[in-house]
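Internal QA ticket QA-208
Title: Verify multi-chain structure generation after dependency bump
Assignee: T.L.

Test input:
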Amino acid sequence: MIKDFLLGDNPFIGVSHLAQEKAREEAKVSTVKNKIKVLKAALNSGATGYTFSTHDSNLELLAAIKKEENLHIEDLNYYILVPYAQSYIRQANKAGAPALIQKIIAEIAKHPSRLIHALKGAILVDPKIFASLFVEMNLSPYMKILPPKKVKAVLLHEVLTELIVSFDLIDLLKHIDHHVHNRLNLSFGIETRNIGQVYNWLRKNNYFPEYIMTPLNPLGYQTAPSKTQAEKAVKEAGNRSKIIAINILASGAVSLEDALKYMQNMKNSLYAVAVGTSKPWRAKENFAKITNALRRC
Amino acid sequence: MWVLYPELKGIDEVLDDDLRIATVGLGKMGLLHSAILNMLKPGIVKAIVDKSYLVTFGGSRLIRNVKFCRDISKMIHEVEPDIVYITTPTRSHYPIASQLIEKQVLNLFLEKPPTDNSIKASSLLRKCGSNHKLMVGLQKRYSATFRHAKKLVEEKMLGKISSVEAYIKSNDVAAPTNRFDRLGKGVLLDLGVHLVDLIQWIFNVEKVEKAAMRKIYTNVDDHFQASLKLASGAEALIEVSWSDVSRRLPETCMKICGEKGIIEVSEDYLKLDLPGSTKTARYRPHYYQGIPQVNLADPEYTLENMHFLHSIHYAKQPLTSLQNTLKTMKIIDELYEKARKTH
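Actual output:
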């Protein structure tokens, strides 16, 4: 049975997998005030959490929530996607990959609590240590605001997940998982848009992270290598990991009704479902329907 | 959906091939192509060459099943790749590709732009034998929406084309920098090459009418505007910018007006308006269902890589071979020449 119903942050940070023109329109109305209204509406209609990437605007939003009277930061569960990849892609465009790596290493070592680990990474010449500290560094400002108990999972952004899988870096993935669990005392997961390939790879390595976040929708949009294989992978991985379904509306290309009908067949394999909107009325309407349809056994 | 990719029939058979791939230049694009290729076929990328010690040393500590080198000759000798992806900065494409052609590497993928001018592109072609395949990373031709637009134009859905307005914009250069000084060319060559290539591919450009460029943050063109005369006689107005802060991601848009209606197309959608008859809009999720089989960045990158592997398997020249994109490079040269004269 689905435990968490999450509001996703894509419309808040100018991301739309339907069209950039839609994302720009949504970003225009996405003031902190409006985002809080959306969160409140979602919460009042059954949402239980917020899943977001480490985009600067989310820091601003969470800081504002902390000051809110009618919305308490403890009211929500949080699933944090690390890092906000586009920001690093832009930096790589500007300065090149080696310069970006150097900059990241310098940033990591700046903080006293990470310095010793960074030195260990340098002495052992172990990039895995730097990768784990990179995740920690991105997470750090958010953990100063959020109650640790309410942070349900730290999820590795799909760009890193797919890179790890494509280069067969199981030790790296396990290292980050271990670091998040043991040093940060948080649960760890991955996000992927290639669930079929990723599931096979995890199975081959006999390792499953606690959480897997992946798109799931009736169109098979962003479900690789195919809709059928993705569904099979979700069902099988659901026995080992907690699956969080995202993009259930195929970026707005399917109706909520059709999406919910489809999810009926998948819900036993799912732990959480996420949907995003920038409109309070839609948050109210959608979460009422989603929780009603998917909470029922 | 496969109707837009007829050339990819039999791709599963292609992926059974035992190919060895090397990537030269582990920047953003090198990493992206390598990851896609490895997701398509695990372990297909055997070697990575990069001049940065940090990248090769760090990479070799992390990625055990790939050979990291700083020297191309050494890599060729040790790995004997069937295919090499060149994803280094533009200026180095020509010498690296020349070296690889000389060393008898038959299949090369050149990230866009293939060279910094059409003279070097022609020179590369002269160095190649008939069995060489040089594919250029002009991946917009593999985007479903642009393929659909081309199909509709060819099927005369709009009747005679009267005008085209198009732009490509990004937010890649939003602060002063001198990193393009050595290349001496800016946004038109780097980003505009996609737009010019699409227009050439769909409409066939007859000549450059007007061109103007503007510096904003660099010492080269940050903004470019031009008018192109198409083979049909229609005019195409283009605008190129890499300093548009409203763009989170690069975006290419085209408005095609014909006697029967209008098509608006971008990477995200195709909107068809035939007054009195049809008004439809199809978005990414309508196009990319079960295709491509790897989702990493935009689907067009995976489709482009699949196309290249397919071309090699069936011994065909790729759609975006250097030969097929040479005209695009000539138009780019003409645009710069015209803009400099205007300036």
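Spot checks passed. Residues 208 and 331 of chain B are 7 Å apart (CA to CA).
Status: verified.
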